Amino acid sequence: MIKYGKTLTILAFAFGALALIGGFLGASHPVGDSLAVFRPYSLGALFFAMFGFALWRQKWLTYASLGLLVYGGYSLRGQLITPPPVAGFTLMQHNNRFTNDTRNLVDFARANAPDIITLQEITTNSVPQLAALRPEYPYQVICPFATVGGVAILSKFRFIGAQGEGCVEGLGMVSARVKIPAGEVTVVSLHLNWPWPYGQQAQLADVLPALASLKGPVFIGGDFNMVAWSDVMARIEAATDTRAIGGIRFTKSLLSGAVQLPIDHVLAPSNWPASARLGPRLGSDHNSVIAQFALN
Q1: Top-level CATH class of 82-293?
Q2: What are phi and psi of 122, to 5 degrees?
Q3: How many helices (DSSP H) and strands (DSSP E) are in the chain?
Q4: Is 95 helix (H, G, I), strand (E, B) or coil?
Q5: DSSP per-residue codes, 235-280
Q6: pLDDT for 72-89, tens place per residue?
Q7: In 3D, which of 173, 228, 176 has the Cα closest to residue 204?
Q8: Is the N end or the C end of the chain the one with fewer CB atoms within 10 Å?
Q9: Residues 230 and 24 sit within 8 Å (Cβ to Cβ)
């Protein structure tokens, strides 16, 4: 048993250290952002290793595990602090899942009345139900993206400009200039591909210039398929003068729930008080995110 315990400790340290350090290299290679997705798990592995080494009386390896644990935990500081709830207008973000017909979303929207809804994976299965929401959400735009469906924005507030002018087919992004009680803002629904070895970086090369061209202030709801502490998210925030609302919200499950990923986010302008909470799945394989913004 002692032999197995030492082996597990060494393996946990190796996984935790490599995944943690590699996860900071996203600016050099996209594999870094892929590793960053698993940072909470790498920290858990290092926590296990630290106690294993302590029991094994390996002082320097114990200190090394503790140092990496502290450094990794500090890197999550922006997400570990959940902002207090604020009052104002509400944005609901939801990856609907392409096989879902959206009926649960319609019922939730009618019962809870978020002001703006950003959606991904909208297909012909869900378009008729969204059309039924036009009395509550008269301003709607749906933009084709991929075989899993398009991106959409539903709003109680009036769109400024031509209908659908913020749609670029195949980009995974749609934007709309919206007149809310606090003034004019730009709302974006975004759906990024999975990270390396998939096509997120190539898609981002087209998405970033489009985001940077938007008139502020900008609000983004999306399935980013990426964590808030990644290089990808930092580049999006820099391009739009936004920040991911604090708090780690695990919105996507893998391996029958054994792996939980915080990959759906709402980004708010840097100077706007905002808060967010995890919402229901509504027939999808993603949880929704319910964000609130103070009216500046």
Answers
A1: alpha beta
A2: -95, 120
A3: 9, 14
A4: strand
A5: HHHHHHTEEEPSS----EEETTTTEEE--EEEEEETTS-EEEEE--
A6: 999 998 888 888 888 888
A7: 173
A8: N
A9: no
Residue from 209, 205, 225 nearest 265 by CA: 225
Side chain identity, residue 277: R
Give how far Cα 227 sits from Cα of 8, 28, 165, 193, 239, Å: 27, 17, 29, 13, 17
127: three-class secondary structure by DSSP: helix
Residue 281: phi and psi, rounded to 5, are -85, -35
Of the candidates 149, 171, 169, 154, which has an alpha carbon nearest to the alpha carbon of residue 98? Answer: 149
Any idea where the domains of the chain sit in the sequence? 2-75, 82-293
**Alpha-carbon span 36 to 206, nearest angstrom:** 22
Residues 238, 272: contact at Cβ < 8 Å? Answer: no
Where does residue 200 fall: left (phi above 0), alpha (psi -120 to 50 degrees), or beta otherwise? alpha
Residue 108 one-letter amino acid: F
CA nearest neighbour of 92 among 295, 283, 237, 282 = 282
Q: What is the spatial distance between Cα 132 and Cα 138, in angstroms, rounded to a whole number?
A: 10
Joined together, the tokens standing for residue 185 give 């803002």
pTM of the entire predicted model: 0.92
* Cross-sheet strand order for the sheet of 139-146: 139-146, 149-155, 116-122, 89-95, 289-293, 274-278
Average confidence (pLDDT) over 252-269 = 89
What pLDDT score was predicted for residue 257?
75
